[in-house]
């Protein structure tokens, strides 16, 4: 019995024994070390697997399969730079193995290089056209890169083979706006009625709600979303007190700092676009990255991870009250250096400036200012009612703690209120350092607001910023379809379609003194 056969069957004990026998018989051959590494990785022992993979590569440094799996493990350990190098070396070597090609594509996608990921995904599908996981990865990459017709074709091919495939139903629903005469509502209703897996059910309900809203059936869309979110909130057992404690800890920690201290790194290449999700952060990223001097790096985890690493806390959460407190003892220059090293792996070659548009970086504004005092920060603001509705109606990464609030309207309103309070806190502590940039103002006077944005970021005028919708760079957010159209007011006041269902949210904001008009 070979180690590969045992691995394929999931018999890790047999696979490990066979791999050890290979190493004893042929210690100069990389295959035994590679299969030992894969056995350890399958057992969840990534730290043990990586040295074995390095032994395999020492024997055969240009093996594309070894390089691809090495890149995958490095990504899991958040060693993005090394992962990028290994993935690109694997791509250069070439491979006829579908799994290797798909793995390379997945690593590139995790690194935000969706354009380059298309080629290995296409290769994987060409070699194993019936593998639905490979085809889904290609479909998603096509969607992110604006290949809408190709994405639609791949999603439909998946659904022809697996009519209940929830990921593909959802991907197809958000790919473009549906029309009354052409939509998938009936098919989605059937798939939803048959779904049993909770993750599948939440995706299908979100897809159905999105298409119902597209075709003007607002009441049914609201009811479908409410059911989806209520069920999912119960599953994850979210309590707003979890996020409130983080806000409290951040405000308490920074209340004790000297705002005039200058101890960070003078690098001025970073532009941070922050704010509540679904408020226009992707739009502003596209505007800025249309400038000749600016590139987009997408939503980097570089700053949260730099703060976490500098804090040295052992909790599994990237941000929690303990980390918020402990990070204050770290040298701001160290945080800045850790950030720049992580961000460098995502910067396109030759870019003078770059945009990091992780919305949740609003939690880290204080660390950004202390560690990178010359960085520019833009915070997107949008009508709070539209913000709540847009968060509630969009399915974020279901495993991410960042968005756990979004499955309940009032939780989202509470989160917005704390976001609003924290941004006011940053403004008092560091006046003028963050540009509060209004989505509605941008829509109503695009050129004036774009000039104000560029001026704050220290950029000269570039008319290409007005034609952001012609920017062909990949978009891996729910805004992918919107930002490929010219600016319009469709999203302003959308909450009013659901005014009755959002009455409690409106009353909450009024009680908090937060203007909603």
Can you describe this structure?
The protein has 517 residues and is mainly alpha-helical. It has a domain at 274-490: P-loop containing nucleotide triphosphate hydrolases (Rossmann fold, 3-Layer(aba) Sandwich). The protein has a five-stranded parallel sheet with strand order 2-3-1-4-5, sandwiched between helices. The mean pLDDT is 93. It has helices spanning 3-9, 12-25, 30-42, 46-59, 64-76, 80-93, 98-110, 114-127, 132-144, 148-161, 166-175, 185-194, 198-214, 218-236, 241-254, 281-289, 302-311, 321-326, 332-344, 365-371, 384-393, 409-429, 439-444, 446-456, 503-512; strands at residues 270-275, 294-296, 353-356, 376-381, 434-438.
Topology:
Elements: H1 3-9, H2 12-25, H3 30-42, H4 46-59, H5 64-76, H6 80-93, H7 98-110, H8 114-127, H9 132-144, H10 148-161, H11 166-175, H12 185-194, H13 198-214, H14 218-236, H15 241-254, E1 270-275, H16 281-289, E2 294-296, H17 302-311, H18 321-326, H19 332-344, E3 353-356, H20 365-371, E4 376-381, H21 384-393, H22 409-429, E5 434-438, H23 439-444, H24 446-456, H25 503-512
Helix pairs in contact: 1-2, 2-3, 3-4, 4-5, 5-6, 5-7, 6-7, 7-8, 8-9, 9-10, 9-11, 10-11, 11-13, 12-13, 13-14, 15-22, 17-19, 19-20, 21-22, 22-25
